[in-house]
Every structure is written in structure tokens, then in C-alpha cells.
Design brief:
alpha/beta; Rossmann fold; 7 helices
């Protein structure tokens, strides 16, 4: 399962899918217009590790916001607000939990960090706790199957940058 956050990750995930000859691949893409978050060129396919720090904290990392797909841009927005308040926050893009699970413990620890973790996903919490830990928070839906424009659903279910900021601050 591959859930890219922007056009750069989509190209990387496409490459992963093409090279995955021993298993099926699914690219779950959004219909939303999403900004290009990765503007610096890298020869390495960062999505191939399953998750990576897409925006590092300025100063000491006190919090990590983890997100997949279109929610990564929302996580970046929340990070800006937290950084403005002096809270060092990194954003982790997780295009593939399965690929991230295969990484060594040192890599996973470096990506996840030791501070507060908040997951952002416009879906249910199922599966997130393994990445969030005991003190982590989840911003998402309580159920599945709602239908409306994403802006209305995000507002209704509190999937907002402000909710992420509040969740981080409540856990610090």
C-alpha cells in the first residue's frame, strides 16, 4: 500500500510499484489538489524506506507529526504554527507503513523521535498506535464511510492544523 503526499512521492511510489515483482502494489491517490512539499532534489527514493522526515524541527525536536497522503500538507501547516510558538516539531511522511516496518530499529527511532507524536489521517485510528506510542494522539475520523467534500469532513471531524497543535501542546 502506497499513499504518496505529493507529485514527487507519487513518482517515487510508482517506481516502487514497478520494481515490486514479488507482491501486488496499490497506489492510493487523492482527488484533492495538494502542494508539492518536496522541492529539493535527492537521488535517493525517500519513499522506499516507507517513512522519512520530510520537514525537520528547528531546534530541539519536542514533537513529531506523522501523516500519510494529502494529510502531510496539513501536518506541515501545524508544524509552522508550533515552530512559531517555539516548539521544535518535525513532520514525517509515511507513504508506506509496510516498507517502514521493514527498516531497522535505529532508522525507525531516528524518524519517529523521542518526543510527543501525533498522527494525522482522514480515516480511522486503526493501526496508528504502533507508531504513536502510549502518549501519542490521533487526529482523524472515528468511523468510516462518510461522504462530503473533504473540507466539510475535515471541519466536522476536527481534522485541522489547529487540532494537531492543540494535541501536541496538551501532551507536552
Amino acid at each position: 500500500m502506497l499513499r504518496p503526499a505529493d507529485a514527487v512521492e507519487t513518482a517515487e511510489c510508482w517506481q516502487i510499484a514497478l520494481e515490486a515483482t514479488g507482491s501486488p502494489s496499490v497506489l492510493a491517490l487523492t482527488r484533492q489538489n495538494v502542494p508539492t512539499l518536496r522541492t529539493e532534489h535527492t537521488a535517493e527514493n525517500l519513499s522506499a524506506r516507507g517513512a522519512y522526515v520530510i520537514v525537520e524541527a528547528e531546534g530541539e525536536r519536542k514533537a513529531t507529526i506523522l501523516a500519510t497522503g494529502s494529510e502531510v500538507s496539513l501536518a506541515v501547516e501545524a508544524r509552522k504554527a508550533l515552530q512559531a510558538q517555539g516548539i521544535g516539531t518535525a513532520v514525517v511522511s509515511m507513504p508506506s507503513w509496510e516498507l517502514f516496518e521493514r527498516q531497522d530499529d535505529a532508522y525507525k527511532a531516528s524518524v519517529l523521535g523521542t518526543g510527543v507524536r501525533v498522527g494525522v489521517e482522514a480515516a480511522i485510528r486503526l493501526g496508528w498506535d504502533r507508531w504513536l506510542g502510549d502518549k501519542g494522539a490521533f487526529i482523524g475520523m472515528a468511523g468510516f464511510g462518510e461522504s462530503a467534500p473533504y473540507q466539510e469532513l475535515y471541519k466536522h471531524f476536527g481534522i485541522t492544523a489547529e487540532a494537531v497543535v492543540d494535541a501536541v501542546k496538551a501532551r507536552l
